[in-house]
Design a protein that fits this description.
- The chain is α+β, with helices and mostly antiparallel strands.
- It has 4 domains: about 15-110, Herpes Virus-1 (2-Layer Sandwich), CATH 3.30.40; about 130-205, no CATH class; about 380-615, Hect, E3 ligase catalytic domain fold (Alpha-Beta Complex); about 620-720, Hect, E3 ligase catalytic domain (Hect, E3 ligase catalytic fold), CATH 3.30.2410.
- The chain contains 24 helices and 22 strands.
- It is globular.
- The protein starts with 10 loop residues before the first helix and ends with a helix.
Amino acid sequence: CVLCGRTDDCPEKYGEKRTYVEYNLTVHYYCLLMSSGIWQRGEEDEGVDGFLITDIKKEVKRAAKLKCNICKRKGASIGCVAPKCKRSYHFPCGLQRECIFQFMEDFSSYCWEHRPVQEFMDKEPRGASQCTICLDLVEHLPVYTVLKSPCCKNAWFHRECLQYQALSAGIFFFRCTVCNNKDKFQKEMLRMGIHIPERDASWELEENAYQDLLHCYQHCDVKRCLCKKGRDYNEPDSKWEIKRCQYCGSRGTHLACSSMKSWEQNWECVECRSIFAKSGKYSKRKKRALATSETTNGTTCLLEEPPPKSPRQSSGSPCSFLLQSPKIMCQNLSPCSHLEQPAPNRVSLSPVMSNRNWSLRHKYLRQRRREVCNILKELKVQVKTKTTRLNINAENIWSSALKGFRQRIFSPTNTIEVNFSNCKNRSKTNTSAASKHHFFQVLMLHLQNSSLFEGSSGKNLSLDFQAVKENLYFEAGKMIAVSLVHGGPPPGFFSKTLFNCLVYGPENVKPALEDVADVDVAQTIKMIKYADSLSSLQSTLQDCCEFLTGAGCLRPVTALCDKNMLVNDILIYHVIKRITLPLESFRQGLKTLGVLEKMQMHPDLFSSILCHKPERLSAETVYNLFTIHSSSDVNKVEGADFWMGYLQDSVVTLEDILLFVTGSCYIPSVGFDPEPTIKFLHIRYPIGNRLLNCLELPITKTYQQFKNKMELTIRNTLRVERE
């Protein structure tokens, strides 16, 4: 490892050890994570999980000057954060000396003298009890190797046991083994240096681990089946949907075959009915009328026609999402820093491409985005002046957004107003437009990092059964469509494969290996694809026959060339067929306001905003965004020169300038309404009128006076709003 100098490969202690041959670089993940002088400045697929290679080399040079206070060797990249403490050490040395590393927030490190400790009451019994993880005795002592539960009085653990439990359970399932408390327990364990990875539990990541639980009985067992397509035919949300026995679940019937008008009606098979009849507990019930919730617009729903959105909505709470918030971002990032990152590697240009080609590429995308803007403006004509207010809890954006979009009075053709609640840092001076821009920006980021999508950069739909059940894919598509038309940011995270499935239909799309997000599945496909002999291919297929059976791709292979068709079939199943239901539901959501129809009519244009990250704001882009107006006694040319010079020279970011004028730190896909303008007036300081998207600028004698007034006003205004 270039940081600690050790060759140990122990993922549990030092994190994954990664080698990059092209950069002549090997590094432990935890050594990199805890180093004091490096920040994650790139996308997750850049460098080493967002740590740029140039930054890593700079950190190695910095650490080479520092001596470890434990082993006395150079290369100590980690420093104690306690004030006035100058101790530095390697990560493995720190573990050995019982330092504490906090895998949260700023990823702080504390030496053995300043590390945090747990409080012990004098009255607490000193003795020993059983560690509920390993079941061995653990002494009640205030030492590094022993940790006490913050939520249970007599729960004590070995530190090593807790760390292994956390690595296995992940952030979803790591909790107190005695009382099952999660929030309080995790907070204390993170403070005391337990690393809780932001991923699902190890037992949840096993391929097809719960496959047997997903098999449902699909057969009509009534004496006389009325379905012309056979007893095994099942069409969801219609009269030919199969309903299983409410008691045993091992017998079924079509709704029509048992004269049921709704899925909500219960059905018992003959065997269960006879058992209850003999026990005296069965009484024949009258068929109940449909409940209010089973009627639509006053008419009874007979399930003859499937609704446009997929499966019935669960009455339970919405599916929650774990946000993959960036591990460490540079502390000076602007509010829309996620929009400033480079485009994903699936569309990035070769490093050897000339600057001219790079410029032409950007020019091409800008032209396409301008044309999309005009198309979205045509769709925006549908939006009426009647308003719908969304009350958004800033601490739980997704749940409150879902509730707002599902409310009965919500209509995508109404003008949307956003009101933030439970948010101390929202200023009263924020206009409705500013709140709406901020809401759509955060909502798109939530969706990008949610469990509905998978992949590191270009994302495809994932298969989340709970989300399918609660119809969240439909809601996600609807939210993206509404955001595009109502002034939200370009999503920019769709993979080419997902976009082509939406536009051309899944049957016309050929997925690639890069579309497989599951590491184990990708590895299996690679082994098949790169098998160099028939015997090795057959051996590989034998090893993964269970996976191939689940994918419906298990077949005899008699020649090495058969692997190509097999790989293609596996990719089609895993990337497309497996997510047929989520994809159709997502497509239905995107039909809102006619967005999907326009996508299918202009695929080349819409791919520029759905598959490509927005380019970072430039002085030229911002300058061209504004139309300059001035009175007759003002030198328009000189004012324009001052304005352009300031855009190129300002300390304040271009995003903050845009935020000051419009309330948005990004350029919406549909553009600004009204279009931004600039007026040069005889005023003392600049004024940003967000209702009119108008920037009123003072007339000054010198450029320096102009710049000073701009810096002072914009900085102070945004600082007050953020505070």
